[in-house]
Amino acid sequence: MTQGAFDEVSVTELRRRGSYKWRAFPDDILPAFVAEMDFPLAPPVAAAIVDAVALGDAGYAWPIQELGEAVSGFLQARFQWTVEPTDVTLLPDVMVGITEVLRLAVNPSGGVVINTAGVPAVFQPHRRGRLQGRGGAAGGQPPRL
Question: Most exposed: 81, 90, 105, 115, by fewest CB within 10 Å?
Answer without folding.
Answer: 115
